[in-house]
Amino acid sequence: MLPIPVSTDRRHHGFILRRTALLNRSRATNLTVLGLAAIACLSLLFNLHVYFSGATSPSSSPLNKLASLPDLQHNLNHLIIVPGHGIWKGTNPSPEFRTRIDNWAFETFQTAPEPHRLEVFFQHISKAVELALADERSLVVFSGGHTQRTSTTTEGESYLRMAFSAGLFHSETFSRATSEGFAMDSYQNLLFSIARFHEFTGRYPEQITVVGYEMKRARFVDLHRAAIRWPETQFTYIGIDVDGDNSQAKQGERENGYLPYRSDLYGCHTYLANKRRQRNHDARYPSYYSSSPELWPLLVWCPSDPTKLFSGPLPWS
């Protein structure tokens, strides 16, 4: 028998080496795939844990950790809202100075020179603080955005600053008062304040009290409250108007406020939408879409029929 050529042994040996290398690579690939699958499973389990635990405990949600929020006051259940009507630019809250026109920035139609027409803003603030001091489970939200180019702050922040400057809370560390700085109209005063309450407490209110103009009662009670389907038995409106003849102001409220909202419940069409855009000088975008995701469908609700009521789920109905 003739001997096997040496070249054949080399080819056979090379084949075995290549086959072994391929098997090793295959094992490594399989191990890599298994490792990635294990990581994916762990990630899924972790995300499910965070999601479901966050649904029952707002303070443990990733959003709250990301925002480095303090301990939320979960025991509060009463929301007291003060809609802003101007921005206080002053530093001295005494009657002589808080009623000076040059200490305020507001809409042109509000620039009546009578001091008592500015004093009513302070009366709204004072009444809300009085209610808050009487109810330890309440939170005052001064609501109003950056509506004026002549100021660098918001309506809500300026009201809050005036309340503290005037010593209304009897303490510089009073913790149950905050501002809401995105609302551009009365409907947003209500809805955004509810969202701000949720940011501050980790829950939604059970009772709402609004302190504002008496002439705007029908707008808030009959239109805004109904638009968000808030229970009427859990809604209180306290109206404080300017002393004297308010017939012209009441007529203006009906023509420029009540009737437009009756025809456009959510204020997102033509006339009312344009007013919002004109007031939003700095193109500010509210945080409530992410901080109050349960309200997202209502926040973006703008039906083609302006009078169609939102029928989706809400935390309070």
TrEMBL record:
Q: Transmembrane residues, as ranges?
A: 28-52
Taxonomy, superkingdom: Eukaryota
Membrane recorded as keyword: yes
Keywords in alphabetical order:
Membrane, Transmembrane, Transmembrane helix
- GO CC terms, sorted: cytoplasm
Q: Which PANTHER family match?
A: TRANSMEMBRANE PROTEIN (PTHR28110)
Q: Tell me what this protein is called.
A: DUF218 domain-containing protein
Organism equals Mycena sanguinolenta
